[in-house]
């Protein structure tokens, strides 16, 4: 367990005021986000049948919460890690056309998460996915979409300032683009997280590109599942977060794999057996739409806009009692 206690922390809002602000931010953000990216809201599963291959296996070592059910003997049901693969399947299933897409309120459990100020075993995201053409699988498409999301976040800063002027956390005026290789070249002796902190402190907000594949050093910046993002066309939206003096990731997103990139990435990851799963067969046969998508952390956005010190101030989860006690002593009120 790792915990940062900011000096002289002031939550600005009471617990009840914070609850009201959470509702306001979540409802306002999703409406503006859907409008800006031309996305329709859909209902999504909280659990998936394991053999479909639709559950996100994250870095490959996290194990999902799973169970069996009386009416489906011999089948394993998994609580989702995220809906990265399901969303792309849903685009085809629901018949979305190019430049349209979906978003959903995604709730997941990641029981192997290391807990700290910004990580919880409970994950709440706006998961989204949008159809693009094969020709639009480019860096330009990726950057244009990132700028749209940043525009929505800046709009939300204004909305929160109007309603809660005493609490709003000021955001940078622009987002900059940088690759993981550029960070390794600049700071070869730093760890990947130290590089993220350094570039975010310098620039305020960055979209860190090309995560998952090996860099010149032979190392990876961070783990990414091999079968949804194209590692050359993905990235994270990161803000320098003054209350914690570190980078805060708001979104992980990317252009999704095509047959060629998925086969190459699964080979690099030593997971070629996944090619036998139904979802992966559909990608290889080009039976699913080409798409771009990602997840935007709902609680992370609330943290960012309200200047909160702990994600537990804006979501209800399970925390070690030691962490709860330390936070309460510092005026950090865990829900």
Question: Could you provide a short overview of the structure?
Answer:
By secondary structure, this protein is α+β, with helices and mostly antiparallel strands. The chain has helices at residues 15-37, 84-93, 139-163, 180-186, 192-203, 259-269, 278-284, 298-306, 321-329, and strands at 39-41, 47-49, 66-67, 77-79, 101-109, 122-131, 176-179, 205-209, 229-241, 246-256, 291-297.
Major sheet summary line = 8 strands, mixed
CATH class assignment = Alpha Beta
Q: How many structural domains can be distinguished in the coordinates?
A: 1
User: In percent terms, what proportion of residues is strand?
Assistant: 15-25%
Mean pLDDT, rounded to whole units?
Answer: 92
Low-confidence stretches: none
End-to-end gap: 18 Å
Radius of gyration: 20 Å
Number of contiguous helices = 9
Q: What is the share of helical residues?
A: 25-40%
* Strand and helix order: HEEEEHEEHEHHEEEHHEHH
Q: CATH topology, what is it called?
A: BirA Bifunctional Protein, domain 2
CATH homologous superfamily identity: Bira Bifunctional Protein, Domain 2
The overall strand count is 11
Structural class: alpha+beta
What is the global morphology? globular
CATH architect. name: 2-Layer Sandwich
Report strand order across the widest sheet.
Answer: 1-5-6-11-10-9-8-7
How would you characterize the overall build of this protein?
The chain is of the alpha+beta class and 335 residues long. It has a single domain, classed as BirA Bifunctional Protein, domain 2 (2-Layer Sandwich), CATH 3.30.930.10. The protein is built from nine helices and eleven strands. It has an eight-stranded mixed sheet with strand order 1-5-6-11-10-9-8-7, sandwiched between helices. Helix 1 crosses helix 8 (298-306). The chain is globular, with a radius of gyration of 20 Å. The protein starts with 14 loop residues before the first helix and ends in a 6-residue tail after the last helix.
């Amino acid at each position: 367990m790792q915990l940062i206690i900011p000096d002289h922390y002031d939550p600005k809002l009471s617990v009840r005021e914070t609850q009201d602000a959470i509702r306001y931010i979540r409802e306002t953000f999703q409406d503006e986000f859907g409008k800006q990216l031309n996305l329709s809201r859909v209902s999504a599963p909280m659990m998936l049948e394991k053999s479909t291959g639709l559950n996100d296996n994250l870095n490959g070592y996290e194990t999902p919460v799973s169970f069996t059910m009386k009416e489906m003997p011999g089948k394993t049901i998994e609580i989702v890690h995220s809906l990265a693969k399901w969303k792309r399947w849903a685009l085809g299933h629901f018949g979305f056309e190019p430049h349209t897409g979906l978003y959903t309120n995604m709730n997941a459990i990641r029981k192997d998460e290391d807990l700290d100020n910004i990580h919880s075993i409970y994950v709440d995201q706006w998961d989204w996915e949008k159809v693009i053409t094969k020709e639009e699988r480019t860096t330009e498409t990726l950057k244009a979409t990132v700028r749209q999301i940043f525009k929505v976040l800046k709009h939300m800063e204004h909305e929160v300032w109007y309603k809660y002027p005493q609490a709003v956390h000021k955001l940078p005026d622009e987002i900059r683009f940088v690759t993981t290789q550029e960070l390794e070249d600049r700071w070869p002796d730093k760890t990947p997280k130290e590089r993220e902190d350094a570039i975010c402190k310098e620039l305020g907000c960055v979209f860190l590109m090309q995560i998952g594949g090996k860099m010149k050093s032979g190392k990876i910046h961070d783990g990414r599942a091999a079968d949804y993002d194209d590692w050359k066309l993905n990235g994270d939206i990161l803000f320098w977060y003054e209350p914690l003096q570190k980078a805060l990731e708001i979104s992980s997103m990317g252009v999704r794999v095509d047959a060629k990139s998925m086969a190459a990435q699964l080979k690099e990851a030593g997971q070629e057996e996944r090619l036998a799963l139904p979802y992966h067969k559909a990608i290889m046969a080009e039976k699913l739409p080409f798409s771009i998508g990602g997840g935007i952390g709902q609680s992370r956005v609330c943290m960012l806009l309200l200047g909160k010190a702990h994600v537990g101030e804006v979501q209800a989860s399970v925390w070690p009692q030691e962490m709860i006690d330390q936070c309460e002593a510092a005026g950090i009120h865990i829900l």
